[in-house]
Amino acid sequence: MTTGTKKAANRQGFKTGESVVYPTHGVGRITAIEEQEVAGFKLELFVIFFEKDKMTLRVPTAKAAAVGMRKLSESALVTKALETVSGRARIKRTMWSRRAQEYEAKINSGDIIQIAEVVRDLYRSDAQPEQSYSERQLYEAALDRLVREVAAVNATMENEALKLVEAHLAKSPKRGKTAEAEVEVDADLEDEQEEAA
Fold it and tell me: What confidence tens digit (pLDDT) does each residue in 19-28 have?
């Protein structure tokens, strides 16, 4: 295998100018593929620019898959994510700190369906009680990631993608006093309740 072929294989199909999803930062664009010498070794790096955060990240081409960098979702997967958003919220009956960690992990997974689940579960309509500060922060982070990818896949502006997501949220089953969200009882909690009985 020649050096050029080996380098192309390390790039895993990613190329300059392409939009990609980096799990912990969302949608960015590969602006260059450059070589740097680090500790005496030549290292090929993807240079990824995140417009919204005005941030540049350098990722070794050989490590792109290992860190979870991926191409934008296909249109069918975006449609599935929007359907997920309009579904019934599933809220576990566990301590908020534990749920918050799970939501954070889903947001940073880079998986559009998991991010849509967080948006769905933390969404509050005007008729519902206020969210806590931490709920609001997680909701906005998930919404931002989802909107940025929907906009990139549909080649639209972010405000149009936001309207599309909000339209799907409006279709979700009514929440509030009349209809409760589907509650998933944590297995640990069930065990404790059985032992107490």
Answer: 999 999 999 9
- Angstrom distances, CA of residue 57 to CA of 44, 66, 112: 13, 16, 21
Contact 73, 112 (CB under 8 A): yes
Angle of the 133-154 helix axis to the 158-171 helix axis, nearest 10: 120
Q: In 3D, which of 114, 161, 173 has the Cα closest to residue 142?
A: 114
Return the residue matching tokens 């989802």: 146
* Cβ atoms within 10 Å, residue 23: 15
Alpha-carbon distance 130 to 132, whole Å? 7
Query: pLDDT by residue (tens digit) across 74-126?
Result: 999 999 999 999 999 888 888 999 999 999 999 999 999 999 999 999 998 77
What residue ranges define each of the domains in the chain, with the CATH number in brackets? 14-71 (2.40.10.170), 75-188 (1.20.58.1290)
